[in-house]
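Running co-folding for protoporphyrin IX containing FE.
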Amino acid sequence: MNQTPRYTRTAVTLHWLIALLMIVNVVLGLAAESLPDSWVRTTIDTHKSIGITVLGLALLRLLWRFSHRPPALPAAYPSWERRLSGVVHVLLYVLIFALPLSGWMHDSAWEGAATHPMALFGIVPWPRIGWIQNVADPATKESLHTLFGHWHVWFGYALYAAFALHLLGALKHQFVDRHAELQRMGW
Ligand code: HEM
């Protein structure tokens, strides 16, 4: 009988769905600059739609996390690994909010926002953040656009670092320590 304690199906589904969408969005975000002009608009619009979807899923995930305890870690894990994995998990939670929010803020300060309304996957109208879009002075708005763009890029760098640690930790537990680590987050 398999005794591995697991996350709930809802937690597992949200984990892999958010992971997949974030990876796709990193690829789209990084690729946007080097694509031919005729592809850029669709790529960035898709990136925005996926990002807002991630924000909604992140909210569900956080609510689920607050109401459900994760399965206990194997007793054999040393305390430094427990602490480090806890820190990385908190950082990942922060980033699944910070990336879409900073992207949305960046986009809301875009001078083209008014003439290019957002619609999720071309279907569902989606607002810009009013207080940012309504900044009257063009110079102030442009500097906000740049600032929020920098935040978005830096949250991206933090994501690469946190993701690398997360992946290394999971692989170490699975293949070096030989615990059923991946099964905890499996269906
Ligand atoms: C899952 C959430 C998101 C992730 C992981 C993500 C990630 C990224 C990355 C890695 C880049 C490239 C940064 C670089 O050049 O180093 C980028 C660019 C960008 N993102 Fe996001 N993003 C997310 C959500 C959003 C949202 C919700 C919006 C807007 C509503 C947005 C708007 C943009 C824009 C406008 C760019 C610049 C694209 C360009 O002109 O090259 N992002 N994003």
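Result summary
The mean pLDDT is 96.
The radius of gyration is 19 Å.
Job closed.
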